[in-house]
Design goal:
mainly alpha, Serine Threonine Protein Phosphatase 5, Tetratricopeptide repeat, 6 helices, 81% helix
Length: 103
């Protein structure tokens, strides 16, 4: 059983687990299936908008796809969530990629 299959089994046992959804999206990125990765990243943000790590990775995926405006919007939303959570590290990382993108 590969990593994606393992995570899918875990997700069936714990549907809605933000960590598992995020991990599954990352595995799809590694496998080169950015369509599936995007679906899982978006699902994670719909279900758990405070899961800050997803904003960074979804933004990077959108950048690679050439969706610069959409990526900037995702980074901006992530910065708001990080600020609300008091997560200065995530805020700094998101601000950095946002500024690199728009400047």
């Amino acid at each position: 059983m590969n990593r994606i299959e393992q995570l899918q089994v875990f997700l069936k046992e714990s549907p809605g687990d933000s960590f598992l959804i995020h991990a599954l999206a990352l595995e799809y990125v590694k496998a080169g299936d950015e369509v599936m990765a995007k679906q899982y990243f978006e699902q994670n943000l719909d279900q758990a908008p405070a899961y800050v790590a997803t904003y960074y990775h979804l933004g990077k995926l959108l950048e690679r796809a050439g969706a610069v405006d959409e990526a900037a919007g995702i980074y901006s939303q992530g910065m708001e969530q990080a600020r609300a959570a008091g997560d200065q590290h995530a805020l700094s990382e998101l601000r950095s990629v946002y500024e690199d993108l728009i400047y």
